[in-house]
């Protein structure tokens, strides 16, 4: 059984995601994604399932160096579901051209508890 509180576990996942994105570590990122993953993001068709989510992330990590930081705003935990709202500040650098792009936005992560472990089930974000 996990000795960390639910909130502490979700805080730890956010740091894992931030580290994975900043280092391009696909395996680390995949470790916090649920099999039933759904991703809704600007200008991309809805992504269904962990394999398609990991494939999208691989293309993203292959194409860009990412510098991102997340600022948590609220975490709501209800039984085996948790909802986390964050803002993010991101700069990407295209690995081919060196072109940089910056954005800020809001994100909603929805987690499900699966066998005593929290995993991301929905990822929804938009730019501000």
Automatic annotation (TrEMBL):
Domain DUF4440: from-to ranges: 12-119
GO molecular function, one term: isomerase activity
Alphabetical keyword list: Isomerase
Keyword match Metal-binding: no
UniProt-listed Pfam families: DUF4440
Top-level lineage group: Bacteria
The keyword Isomerase is assigned to this record: yes
InterPro entries: DUF4440, NTF2-like_dom_sf
Listed name of the protein: Ketosteroid isomerase homolog
Organism from which the protein derives: Pseudarcicella hirudinis
């Amino acid at each position: 059984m996990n000795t960390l509180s639910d909130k502490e576990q979700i805080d730890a996942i956010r740091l894992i995601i931030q580290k994975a994105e900043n280092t391009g570590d696909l395996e680390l990122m995949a470790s916090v994604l649920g099999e039933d993953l759904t991703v809704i993001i600007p200008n991309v068709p809805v992504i269904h399932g962990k394999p398609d989510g990991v494939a999208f992330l691989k293309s993203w990590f292959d194409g860009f160096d990412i510098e991102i930081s997340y600022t948590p705003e609220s975490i709501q935990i209800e039984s085996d579901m948790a909802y986390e709202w964050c803002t993010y500040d991101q700069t990407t650098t295209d690995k081919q051209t060196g072109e940089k792009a910056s954005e800020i936005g809001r994100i909603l992560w929805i987690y499900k508890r699966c066998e005593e472990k929290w995993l991301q089930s929905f990822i929804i974000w938009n730019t501000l």
